[in-house]
């Protein structure tokens, strides 16, 4: 089920819920479970700007770069280091986003 909610925001990857071609995110907040090795983050900002963070050598998040994004119906086009590509939006809710890499 794909919702029509806005995908902008600070998203944290929950790798243990994803699969080979599926990426599951939760909005940044207190409900993010801890993870050994840290978690990757994707920041989808208004006006099509984007950024990413990834765990550094000490597991502290570090910038992985910036770029852009846009949504075309149920397709999300991301141009940020580590996330480059086109994704089908499988589900979008207020606090959860599920993408499938094309």
Describe this structure in words.
Residues 29-71 are annotated as: Disordered. The chain is an all-beta fold and 102 residues long. It has one domain (9-101). It is 0% helix and 52% strand. Strands 1-2-8-7-6-5-4-3 form an 8-stranded antiparallel β-barrel. The mean pLDDT is 91.
Give the biggest beta sheet.
8 strands, antiparallel, barrel
Mean pLDDT: 91
Give the domain tally: 1
Strand content: over 45%
What structural class do you assign from the helix and strand content? mainly beta
Query: What overall form do the CA principal axes indicate?
Result: globular
Identify the strand order in the major beta sheet.
1-2-8-7-6-5-4-3
Extract low-pLDDT stretches.
none
The total strand number stands at 8
Continuous helix count: 0
What's the multimeric state? Answer: single chain
Fill in the keyword field for this structure.
102 residues, 0% helix, single chain, eight-stranded antiparallel beta barrel, mainly beta
Give a brief outline of the structure.
This protein has 102 residues and is mainly β. The protein has one domain (9-101).
How are the secondary structure elements laid out?
Blueprint: E1 9-13, E2 22-27, E3 41-44, E4 49-55, E5 61-72, E6 75-79, E7 85-92, E8 96-101
Antiparallel strand pairs: 1-2, 1-3, 2-8, 3-4, 4-5, 5-6, 6-7, 7-8
